[in-house]
Every structure is written in structure tokens, then in C-alpha cells.
Design goal:
2 domains; 12 helices; globular; transmembrane
């Protein structure tokens, strides 16, 4: 139903955002492939596996398309922090709804594909592999979680330092410190840092015993894996474009220097390079989490 509603967005005609048609196609393709994977019988095992892989790919496109919803929310929060501005464009409710439907469609497609895979594995014992006991190649993937956490920190640490009055990396304090709501992007960044660790730490698999009521219970894998996939999609969407734009800006003699705008040149390039590497290491940690918690629920 989510895929059909997303495809129905065609009727609006105007106000499209870049990649909307790709999102619509991925929604319909994912639903069709998920339905194809539900056939039974040993002779259809190979076709079911192919359909599941295709459905997972379509879901990845949907997550990518819906990931900009995070920036829609941040834009609204920043506008609220800056105060009312009658000239500022308001949020596009239709576009936000399409992105939300894309995420919902991805969840439904992944759920259907996972249910079919679970039926194929019915009768097999549960297994949860400790990353510390994995083969050397797998240990490298597990280490990606720690690297991802480290790479996520420069941005929120520097931003928080600015909010506390520090002038690190700043050439025009009166400009940077006057930006309202500068702390808001720190919240999702620090959440991403914690998520990076959750992918490789025991508390990302089993709730710590000191947590009242839930201590010792298994963490549903979707609560860690789905936000991680969303984070990878956001970083894959933002980091390459930001790094490329930053380099082009510095190489363009017709543009004012970054120092004139208010920052040392190393600040944005460090942020963007870290985001790019964070996306890669987060993807590796998410894959290891998926591999080591399959059938764990």
C-alpha cells in the first residue's frame, strides 16, 4: 500500500524533487520483487534468492530517497531557532510525505524479504557471533564501528566548542557565533556516534543488566540495523557532494575565500572528509552487525 501511495504522487505533477521518479520506481519494483520471493518449493529457491536481493536493493534506493527527511526536520528546527521570517520558504509537506512513504515502503519491502528468508531457514538454530571471535577479515569489519565513531566526532565536538565560545577554526567569530541554533545538528551527529558503537559493542545486541525491566533481553536487530542503514544513506547522499563542492569552492578564484566567510579552510574539508569516511566505515560495521545477528530476531 505504501508503494501504491508513493506512485500516486505522479498525479500532483508539480513540486517534484530530484530523484522522485527513481523512488517511485524502486517502491513498485521492491513490492513486486518481494511478492516474487514468496513462492515455495525447492525448484524456486534460486529465483527467491534473486528476488530477495533485488528487493533489498530497491529498499536501499528507497532509504536513500527518504533520508533527506532528516534535513527537512533540521531545516524546520533551524528556522524556528532563528525566529519568524515571512520571506523564508515553508516546508514542502507533499515532498516530505513522499520521503516518509519511501522509508515506509523500504521497511515493508525489507520485512517481506526477511520473512521469506526466515522461512527458508526455518528449523535452523539461532546464532549470534561475537565479533571478537570472528576471523581476521571479520575483525576488520567489526573494527569499522570504532573507526566510524571516531570519524563522527570532529563535527559535533567542534560545533559544541563554538557554542561554548571557542574560536577554534574561526576567522570571524562575530559571524559564526551569531548563527542561531548551531547546536541542533550536533544531536543527530552524536546519535550517529552512539549508533556506530552499538553495531560492535555487546549493548547493541543485549540490553545491559542495569536497565530496569529490560536488562538482559535481546535488542531487536532492526532497532540498530535500520537506523544504521538510514545513516549510511544520509552520509552517502551528503558527504561526496559536500566534499566535492568544498574543493571546487576553494579552487575557484572567483569565489571569496573561506577565511573571508568566517572559517579556516581546514574546517569544512575536515568535516566533509570525515563524513565520507564515516559513511564507508558505518556501512562495514552495519554489514558485520547484520551478518553476526542473522536469525537473532
Amino acid at each position: 500500500m505504501a508503494a501504491s501511495a508513493l506512485a500516486g504522487r505522479r498525479a500532483h505533477g508539480s513540486g517534484r524533487f530530484a530523484g522522485e521518479r527513481l523512488v517511485q520506481g524502486a517502491a513498485l519494483a521492491g513490492a513486486a520483487l518481494a511478492a516474487m520471493s514468496s513462492g515455495r518449493g525447492p525448484e524456486r529457491a534460486k529465483a527467491r534468492r534473486f528476488a530477495r536481493r533485488g528487493a533489498q536493493g530497491a529498499a536501499a534506493v528507497l532509504v536513500q530517497g527518504g533520508s533527506h527527511l532528516l534535513f527537512d526536520g533540521l531545516a524546520v528546527a533551524l528556522r524556528s531557532a532563528a525566529g519568524p521570517d515571512p520571506d523564508a520558504p515553508g516546508p514542502d509537506a507533499a515532498t516530505s510525505a513522499v520521503r516518509l512513504l519511501a522509508l515506509g515502503s523500504a521497511a515493508l519491502v525489507l520485512s517481506a524479504a526477511r520473512h521469506d528468508a526466515a522461512e527458508d531457514r526455518s528449523g535452523s538454530a539461532e546464532r549470534t557471533v561475537d565479533p571478537g571471535q570472528a576471523a581476521p577479515g571479520r575483525r576488520a569489519l567489526a573494527a569499522c564501528g570504532y573507526a566510524a565513531c571516531a570519524l563522527s566526532l570532529p563535527y559535533p565536538v567542534v560545533k559544541l566548542a563554538w557554542e561554548c565560545g571557542s574560536d577554534i577554526g574561526i576567522t570571524r567569530p562575530e559571524v559564526i557565533h551569531a548563527i542561531p541554533g548551531g547546536w541542533l545538528p550536533v544531536v543527530p551527529a552524536l546519535a550517529g556516534s552512539a549508533l556506530s558503537l552499538a553495531l560492535v559493542r555487546p549493548w547493541g545486541r543485549v540490553v545491559p543488566t542495569w536497565v530496569p525491566g529490560a536488562g538482559g533481553s535481546r535488542v531487536p536487530r532492526w532497532m540498530v540495523l535500520w537506523p544504521a542503514c538510514f545513516g549510511v544513506a544520509v552520509l552517502a547522499q551528503v558527504a561526496p557532494a559536500a566534499l566535492t563542492a568544498g574543493i571546487r569552492y576553494q579552487l575557484d578564484p572567483g569565489k571569496p575565500s573561506i577565511e573571508e566567510i568566517g572559517l579556516r579552510a581546514w574546517v569544512p574539508l575536515t568535516f566533509y572528509a570525515c563524513w565520507l569516511l564515516w559513511g564507508g566505515t558505518l556501512a562495514g560495521a552495519a554489514w558485520e552487525y547484520h551478518r553476526t545477528t542473522t536469525d537473532a530476531g
